[in-house]
Specification:
9 helices, globular, four-stranded antiparallel beta sheet, Helicase, Ruva Protein, domain 3, alpha+beta, N-terminal domain of MutM-like DNA repair proteins
């Protein structure tokens, strides 16, 4: 499943293609949405926003298309009516004079009035989106310490979209590594320094991944490893997808395990329970 940075990047591409341009044609694959085609044709897109892993395309007539890629959804931005060769099923197509924004494979698509967006079941329950909402590390650390979240294990907590919107599997492992937190403990078990590091890492790694095409590793180190001939999957992360490999900091073997039914990675030395 794409995480917050990937959805924000896709939203940037969709916005660049559609913003302030008149929609000449629009098609929904789902019959219950097709009555909205005439409602949205002839309108202009005013903004494309994100809330975690959801995308919100806003129109001049105060309607919004809500979509969630879930596991398999994928956006394509192409020259007008230039469809990609793919076995995916087209779910939504928005065309203007120059460009087409095409959503394939996603099944979670709705049309809302703007005033309904904040009350949508997914939007209403998610936590802060670090890429679209201003939030400080101090405010985030206070959230970690709140009664609502502090007793929950980090591995489950970081995947809960009600905690922080947009964090997924790779960001979970990377945030905990940078913060020096063992994945099996809880916020209430952490020192104030660890909580501060976790808050800063959540913000910094989300933005680093967004700005650098999914890289969460130290950028200078990633460039050196790339220059040495390593492939992107090898230099992209600190620990994620590196089970059995040496830690980039201390050389200890990275451990892979499953948490919340998904793979997780950590360094037993840099993320010791005894810290």
């Amino acid at each position: 499943m794409p995480e917050g940075p990937e959805i924000r990047k896709a939203a940037d591409q969709v916005e660049k293609a559609l913003k302030d341009r008149t929609v000449l044609d629009l098609h929904f694959a789902f019959p219950h949405l097709q009555d909205y085609e005439d409602v949205l044709k002839g309108q202009k897109v005013t903004k494309v926003d994100t809330k975690g892993k959801a995308m919100l395309i806003q129109f001049t007539n105060d309607y919004t298309i809500y979509s969630h890629n879930q596991l398999y959804g994928k956006w394509y931005v192409r020259n007008a009516y230039n469809y990609p060769k793919t076995n995916r099923q087209l779910r939504l197509a928005i065309h203007n004079e120059n460009k087409s924004a095409l959503l394939y494979s996603a099944s979670d698509i709705e049309v809302l009035r703007n005033y309904e967006v904040d009350h949508h079941p997914f939007i209403a329950k998610i936590g802060p989106d670090l890429l679209s909402e201003p939030i400080t590390a101090d405010a985030l650390a206070a959230r970690f310490k709140s009664d609502r979240f502090r007793r929950r294990r980090w591995t489950a907590l970081l995947l809960d979209q009600a905690f922080i919107a947009g964090i997924g599997n790779y960001l979970r492992s990377e945030i905990l590594f940078v913060a020096g937190i063992h994945p099996e403990i809880r916020p209430m078990d952490c020192t104030p320094v660890q909580l501060e590091k976790a808050a800063k890492a959540s913000i910094e790694l989300m933005w680093r991944s967004y700005e650098h095409k999914g890289i969460t590793n130290d950028l200078e180190l990633a460039e050196r490893l790339k220059a040495q001939g390593e492939k992107r999957w090898q230099y992209r992360h600190w620990v994620f997808n590196r089970g059995g490999e040496p830690c980039r900091i201390c050389g200890t073997e990275i451990v892979k395990f499953r948490a919340a039914s998904r793979r997780c990675y950590f360094c037993p030395s840099c993320q010791s329970k005894e810290e």
